[in-house]
Amino acid sequence: MADLRDLQRRAADLERESFNNLFALLVECSQILKDIAPARRRPWLLNVVQELYKSQNGLCSICNGPLSLGDMDVDHKVPFSYGGGNERNNIQLAHSSCNRSKQAQVDPHDLLRYLEDRYMNL
Ligand SMILES: [Zn+2]
Fold first, then answer.
1. Domain extent at residue 101
2. pLDDT at position 1 over 80
3. Could you tell me which residue ranges the HNH nuclease domain spans (predicted)?
4. Ion ligand 1 — residues with CB < 5 Å
5. Distance 68 CA to ligand 1 centre (A)
6. Ligand 1 centre and the CA of 99: distance in Å?
7. 10 Å Cβ neighbour count for 3?
8. φ, ψ for residue 75, nearest 5 deg
């Protein structure tokens, strides 16, 4: 039993370590991307915001609660600090408070997909 627990602990350590390594690599790539091709953000198009609202069924992409006009932000899945731009597949609607509490966190899967998309268009 002790061996099994030790093995589980080592597997968890390895998993954490490889995740951290992957994330560090992604951050490095996003910095390089920012240097060679910084995202330029243009103002929102009303129809894009309306389409997002419809596709999200009027629900916040972070907490799933109903959105209202007075409390709604365009949230970037990959934040500007990681080089994220205003591409349609990088934005979603969220409550202002949900967007603020998320700050500059990023899902590594979103970041990887985003970097791949940007890379294909460099
Ligand atoms: Zn919310």
1. 2-120
2. no
3. 47-100
4. 60, 62-63, 65, 95, 98
5. 10
6. 7
7. 7
8. -100, 140
